[in-house]
Amino acid sequence: MPEVGYTLQASHADSGAPIVSVDMTEGEAKEIIQRLWPRAKLWSAPGGRSFGIETQAEIDVIGSVLKGHHFIFNPEKHTWNFHVYLL
Fold it and tell me: Which of the residues 17, 51, 53, 68 has the least number of beta carbons within 10 Å of its own beta carbon?
């Protein structure tokens, strides 16, 4: 089975320039996926899939799984994406 990576990434909304990336364990990622996108097909594209984080409720779920991190949701200033990809 191929190795899979999971990353949460924040970028500047205006330029798309990266701000921060948080790698996570498979267990953390699977819990987030199950809670936010339980019916999603992760391999709808050949190399993986990305999910846009569009609500404070979604960022709260992620924060509850990734304890020790504080995430600020401000869509006017930055965008958040959850990436699932082959290593």
Answer: 68
Q: The whole model's pTM is what?
A: 0.89
- The CA-CA-CA angle for residues 36, 14, 84, to 5°, reads 30
Distances (CA, A) of 86 to 28, 43, 64: 17, 10, 25
Give the residues of the chain that fall short of pLDDT 50: none
Best CA proximity match to 80, nearest among 4, 6, 12: 12
Give how far Cα 24 sits from Cα of 15, 47, 70, Å: 25, 18, 14
Cβ-contact 74, 12 below 8 angstroms: no
Tell me the per-residue pLDDT of 48-68, one tens digit each, with 9 for 90 and over: 889 999 999 999 999 999 998
Closest to 79 measured CA to CA, from 8, 28, 22: 8
